[in-house]
Amino acid sequence: MVNDNNLLHVEGFPPELDGDVVQCLEYLGIEWAAEEWRVDGHDIGVNEVEKICEALKLSSTVRRLALGYAYIGTGGTRCVADLIKVNTSLRFIDLTHNSIDTEGIGTLVEVLKTNSTITTLWVGDNEFGTEGVCMLADLLKVNTTLEILSLSKTEIEIDGVQSLARALAVNKTLQSITLNCCRLSDQAIKCVCLALDVNTGLKHFDVRANSFGSKGLRYISKTLAVNKTLEAVYLTKKGLETDGAQALADELSQDQRVKIMTRAD
């Protein structure tokens, strides 16, 4: 490694990368040519994610960027949004549990409205709540590239569920949505199921560990009867022991598309 006018020329790294950026990538154990950059679990903050994103602007090989539990916040999310504007190789972005608020998710959504490369987005367990979910619903109405969306551990009020349902009713490209641990009620499940009655694209529907009971299960059962595109609906045993829900769950489990899980994560 040679330091020449603040540029670190390291085997595998482009010489135009700033030395501080290279040192950051080396510290995190990132290999330049790898298809996946995993930074999840590192408390890196905004400065480090900015360096990572600056490096990725020069990459044409990285397909997956995992920043879950990296605590990048809204400032770091802006860096990711700026990256998406210029990078054309990324397909998967994980921003789970990063303290992203409505401003941060709004910035990301605006960029993704015109993006044609990102197919998988994980943004669960953040702080944008119902307002942010409504923004993501608006995204689903116009984006024709996104195939997988995870909103795991996002507390969604009925307004957000209704917005999401309206989006699912018209979206034709999303194939998987994860809504586990979102405190979805019977009414919330009804809204989503009515949308899935007419949806022809979704294949995987994950609603594990929510608040609905037997009524919600009946709505799911009715949807499965009319929707032949769905390949898997994920439920958990926990929370379905009362109000006749367990009997309905047992009945639903006869459908090979229904997966009764023991864990919510």
Structural topology:
Elements: E1 2-4, E2 7-9, H1 19-27, E3 36-38, H2 45-56, E4 64-66, H3 73-86, E5 92-94, H4 102-112, E6 120-122, H5 129-142, E7 148-150, H6 158-170, E8 176-178, H7 186-196, E9 204-206, H8 214-226, E10 232-236, H9 245-252, E11 258-261
Parallel strand pairs: 3-4, 4-5, 5-6, 6-7, 7-8, 8-9, 9-10, 10-11
Antiparallel strand pairs: 1-2
Helix pairs in contact: 1-2, 2-3, 3-4, 4-5, 5-6, 6-7, 7-8, 8-9
Structural summary, described in words:
The protein is α/β, with parallel strands linked by helices and 265 residues long. The chain is 40% helix and 14% strand. It is built from nine helices and eleven strands. The protein has helices at 19-27, 45-56, 73-86, 102-112, 129-142, 158-170, 186-196, 214-226, 245-252; strands at residues 2-4, 7-9, 36-38, 64-66, 92-94, 120-122, 148-150, 176-178, 204-206, 232-236, 258-261. The strands form two sheets. It has a nine-stranded parallel β-sheet with strand order 3-4-5-6-7-8-9-10-11, with no helix packed on it. A two-stranded antiparallel ribbon has the order 1-2. β4, α3 and β5 (92-94) form a beta-alpha-beta unit. α4 (102-112) runs parallel beside α5 (129-142), α6 packs parallel to α7 (186-196) and α7 (186-196) packs parallel to α8 (214-226). The chain starts with a strand and ends with a strand. Mean pLDDT is 91; it is low at 1-11.
